[in-house]
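Exercise 7. Predict the joint structure of the components listed below.
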Amino acid sequence: MSIAEATDLKTEVVRLDHVSKQYGSGANALLALDKVSLTVRKGEFVCLLGASGCGKSTLLSLVAGLDRISGGTLDIGGRHVSLMFQEAALFPWLSVAGNVELPMRLRGVGKAERKRRAQELLEVVRLKDFGHKRPHELSGGMRQRVALARSLAQDADILLMDEPFGALDAMTRDILHDELERIWREQQLTVLFVTHNVREAVRLGDRVILLSSRPGRVIEDFPVTHDRPRRIDSPEVAGQAAEITDRLRAEVARHAH
Amino acid sequence: MPIKFPSARAGLDGVAQDTTPPPAEQPRTDLAAADRVTGLDALELGGRSDKGALGVRIWRSAWPKLLAVAIVLLAWQLVVWAEWKPVYVLPGPATVFEDLGGLITTADFWDGVRLTMIRALTGFALAVLIGTVVGAAVSRFAPLRAAIGSLITGLQTMPSIMWFPLAILLFQISESAIMFVVVIGAAPSVANGLISGIDYVPRTWLRVGQVLGMKGFAKYRHLILPASLPSFISGLKQGWAFSWRSLMAGELLVIVPGALSIGVRMQQARDLNESSLVISFIIVVLVIGILIDVLFNAADNALRKRWGLTGS
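Solution:
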């Protein structure tokens, strides 16, 4: 790796500075995010962790540009983002390959190129023989992999994931963690991953950012340095997860008084 | 891997791979991971059953219908045997089917069917065109919706025969009078089908569209229109039923000179006191209606199957 590339890896691709988000106004106003500051560097895997209602999905919507911030500054330097949800939300009128091709179709990529690239991406998510199938013929885990391939087809600089494995059973989720880690490494992705599962966050992230609830604030930013590939049931992951859980509990207790 | 005997094999494959102990001390290779992925998928995809031979399936779906026909014929015959009405007013099934057999072997009859079907299809096509344009416009522009949205639903409840006096005043005794009523009967259903289809596009799909940057025409082309297809097809089906009813009413009321449609022939049979022929035409209209319904149901089922909306 050249020096230029090495410094490139340090580039901040997402920067939030005292970002607030408020819904409604006056007495009914709800402060979802309160002066949240965080950065994501190129190639980094950052997990946003918090209980439900901490505004983590709101934060992703803001970064994705689906919603507007109420205060502070949000800078993604005009980079392209793609966003993956808990539901695969594939379109039933398209085949699996058709779903993966759709983002390219919308960008005006030629048919042959589109087909080639879609097949390539289906191989990346290990579904190369399923392109002609319909989404409903696939299992939940497979559908989520197709959704990942569709997100990758956007050729975005930043991949935002909103509890993408939240609706899957533990075994399937475990496998998809391995898959996502491999794809992140191979494709050199930058990922901002939202979850309420502490072990999942430690399993996947380079950093785990803990958010408080109502309003969402950054409590702490935990670096995760264990060697990859990790296992969700390894002692190191479990140990750090316990530490973060304690921190979260203390925060909840503090709010209860 | 190819799944030959879906339910049984998939289960075995999955179990076989699960029982293989993971090589804990060696670094896991990509190949092993790939196997694990396929194994789990095979497990989850299992459980599809064959529905038996084609003949058996046809018989299974056909016998209740055949039974129903037999019951109706029997009841009819019983009424005739009871001599509730003289046989020249209410002939039995045997007489009617004999006359029907004679009727459908004449070229005249098929000319009538052709004329009626051309009217039906032209009217329906016009109704689809107008209904689609109006439906799209109403769902796109909020003021338009407020103005005529409820009017469309109101029109749907209007018995189409009520339009004929006005249609005859507007267009005299002509094809246009019939078309007017057919279109006004069917277009609201088509429009409503499209409007509700557009209204109920799932939120998650809309969010995906937003994430993929769909806007304006592309959003309609790639998301809204395909997503509203099932509802649109229901609208078409209902629209067809309305246009077919309106057309039959029209053919009995608006007798265009020289146009010997099914309705006109039926009127003539009544004028000549030929009950048997009148009943024959009733059966013809019923059969055409059923055949078209079968077509719509086939389209509907094909779509449901493609989209995975079936119960299984």
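Discussion. Residues 3-79+157-256 of chain A form a domain with the Rossmann fold fold (CATH 3.40.50.300).
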